[in-house]
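Batch job 17 of 40 flagged for manual review because the log was empty.
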Amino acid sequence: AVITPDGNRSETQYDAWGKAVSTTQGGLTRSMEYDAAGRVISLTNENGSHSDFSYDALDRLVQQGGFDGRTQRYHYDLTGKLTQSEDEGLVTLWYYDESDRITHRTVNGEPAEQWQYDDHGWLTDISHLSEGHRVAVHYGYDDKGRLTGERQTVENPETGELLWQHETTHAYNEQGLANRVTPDSLPPVEWLTYGSGYLAGMKLGDTPLLEYTRDRMHRETVRSFGSMAGSNAAYKLTSTYTPAGQLQSQHLNSLVYDRDYGWNDNGDLVRISGPRQTREYGYSATGRLESVRTLAPDLDIRIPYATDPAGNRLPDPELHPDSTLTAWPDNRIAEDAHYVYHYDEYGRLTEKTDLIPAGVIRTDDERTHHYHYDSQHRLVFYTRIQHGEPLVESRYLYDPLGRRMAKRVWRRERDLTGWMSLSRKPEMTWYGWDGDRLTTVQTDTTRIQTVYQPGSFAPLIRIETDNGEREKAQRRSLAEKLQQEGSEDGHGVVFPAELVRLLDRLEEEIRADRVSSESRAWLAQCGLTVEQLARQVEPEYTPARKVHFYHCDHRGLPLALISEDGNTAWRGEYDEWGNQLNEENPYYLHQPYRLPGQQHDEESGLYYNRNRYYDPLQGRYITQDPIGLAGGWNLYNYPLNPIIRMDPLGLYNLYQLLYDVWHDDSYGTSSIDITGSGDLISLGGHAGLGVAFAKKKGEMLSDICIYATACGHAGIGGGINAAITYSETKSLPTSGVSNSVGVTVGGGVGGHFAYTYVVDVDNPESSTESVGIGAGVDASVMTLACRTWQECWVN
């Protein structure tokens, strides 16, 4: 049992074989039932509803029944690969190559995704059809297997016409850290680091935009934004921390955004205070957000949130004293104070209708929202109807990974004859991605691109470019120009791939004004000069761009957009579940980001959340979790404490105290090695070979490294020994060569014990402590000079 400082008790009961059979927290109990083979065969949630499981003779799951009765079945081949899955009428077949790599799938006989690999076995292409379009993702790698580029394409499958493409490239430093990314049609974004990878700043092209100051524990203390980043920065955010390491304050050089944070003994965030108002948070015994109290001059409002035992919203008894509803047994909310809801057999929301309470005078017909999905349970069509006529319609397009690539929206408008009908031409929006983060939003008039805090979903920089400016920046490469103008009939010529490569390299050297001797010799062989080719290079045009900085709360929800001169261009206010309460937008900036990983769709009121759609009014998702119970027992829930927990992928909740570190790089390394040592009276040395495991924030899997180290000794002592050594370091796991200096003390006859402390020469903040035990005869106090060779595979 665990008893928290406020007296709440969490308890787990076990059977005779040590398996957990029930957990109780705050008076709510979940239980698990096992068969004779020790396999889970039933789960009972807090509402008393059951989810059941069946297995074959090889312990493979063959059937699962959900809390709502949804049934899924699984079939395997002789080698254990999944070959068929069934989900309430959807039959999916899985196909593999001779290396057991998945190659394609079909759903109810229709082709779905297709995977392609290179000779290394690395995934190079994945494609499918979405809403009649062929959508593909293409990957590129370096010789170490690291991702160097990702390109998304959308084509008309009948004509092959390329309708949209978006490409992002990545580069790595000598330590193996991804420190440079080039977004589509933007200058490179370079992350400046110190030591073993701590973030110190950011540049867009050659322009510094961000600077970070950190304390001795490498926590961010000051963040400066603007082309004059530093002491004269237009934006300067100062952060402080409690002795327990919790965020204590964030103060800006504009006082209106100052925030102070209060915590209780349980580690719950209970208060956020600002110049205009204070919000106080109350929690249930299970840690769920139970109430929000807002205090301001002449204002004192308390908003309660009630849920059933499984976490589904209920009418709050304080606001609805006549309600007798105590639980939604199937986790499907049928109605609330605003709407009536309907679901299909997969648990997907299909219809939502305005709820007009009895006795209320009806002034208009109800509006009904309709939702339609594809075979992967992704929303592909939405419409809102009133008086039997559509008010708005929208269609959504996805890539094979489930990322939304485009949306088309038709709105009701008056035509030339005076009739109201849906627009003939839709509003078209394209999307571009870097991994799981939306980085580009392209409309008919503008392109908006977002740079995020590394490793997180907190937006940092907003860059907007008008399409007219982008068109001015379009130019032909040197190879393209020579090919197009290379024939007298105007039809152009086609150069060999090697010649195109040489011309591309030459153009890059000409633009950098650093033409190599190799290129000069090649041109001379062709009877050409650098000056002749330089005159053929089309000039570069730098488009005008509007750059803003995102000022976010502790979770990464945007509160304001700050211009480079320090003025607020947009600001918004939200409740704890991401509903927008107020907005000031004098420059009509498009700012769709809400809670981390979410983008607001104005046409439906929903927030697209990578793998699902989130309804902020309900504080939950409209479809079940695609990863099932791995994301939690209630398949619809958004984290029930959204103050410090979030779900940026629409899959599972993450704990967050400070938005720039929830998914930080590794913060240390544990290693074990075998060493041999020999010393004379004043000098000697030791060598070791070992494996290191990195400790990562928020991840169960570790980075893994192998290394060899050699040290020279100088000091007092002598002997010979062999030992097994365990080390702890504050360094990131990085490939390459490092140098360190320090001291070692050891000794023993027959047995051997040694303690070593070394500091990285290039990063004095990074130190390593080692303890070794083994066999030998020695006694020594030595100084060390070490050199380490390390190769890492970063998770």
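Reviewer: the log was empty due to a logging misconfiguration, but the result itself is present. The two ends are 34 Å apart (CA to CA). Unflagging and moving on to job 18.
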